[in-house]
Amino acid sequence: MTLQEQFIQVNGYKTHYFSNEGSGPTLLFLHGAGIDSGSLSWRPFLEILAEKNYRIIAPDLPGYGDSERPDIAFNTNFFIRFVGSLLDTLKLEKVTLIGLSMGGAISLGTALSWPQRVERLVLVGSYGIQRKVSAHFLSWLMVKTPGILEGTWILTRKSRKMAEWSMVNVFHNPKTMDPKLMDEICLEIGKPFPGRTFTRHQRDDMLWNGLRTNYLSQLEKIQIPTLLFHGRYDAGVPVACAIEAHQLIKGSQLYISEDAGHWAQREKPEEFMQVLTQFLEQTGPR
Question: In what order do the strands lie in the sheet with 13-19?
Fold first, then answer.
């Protein structure tokens, strides 16, 4: 089944997404924050899964990719409401949510808000399962100080070397990155207002003593098949967070990818595809 690129209006925002005509279970992919998009995080897997006849939906969230980039405030609840409206607009009754980092937090929030509409969860380096970030108070000061984040994004946009250096935060071993992927990242950075959505989201979510988006106290409510795929050396969401979430989500599966960082599915694509396919086959319709 050939993937198509389309646009749709969701809550008044022009939204770009990948889809196909698959007649199998619907897989809704949600990318991460920073510089990301449906294509950057998921494109290699979308094509493989489309061939397996799954119905694929992979949007660029507002502020990212080729979707509209509104000049508004952003927070996790905004994106959860957006996903709920996307389900309604596309008339999707029930989906499997596959979310990376911020997309994982949105997936968790969506499953907790509308449990009847989510049949499975796949959480990759998921946000929303930790109480604080590393060096939290210092990170809070940096996020809250005007100009620091904006200046960092300007430097990253102007310098490929700076963009390559920033990959140490998401790849355990950036030297293994395919140069073509780095080319795609630089193209994404070159789009209008890079980092603006992420910066505003960060400033909303970072509290001096913790993170606003924290679902740990609600994870016991999740009663659907759940896979946590996590890099051993994830610098953004330490692997201990995934272990704790696995213990709280009854019946969940935890796969720790060795020698991988935060962007584990792009750092270990064959491994991720194997683990994901096995999970989908084990938990799918009999």
Answer: 4-10, 13-19, 55-59, 26-30, 95-100, 118-124, 226-231, 253-257
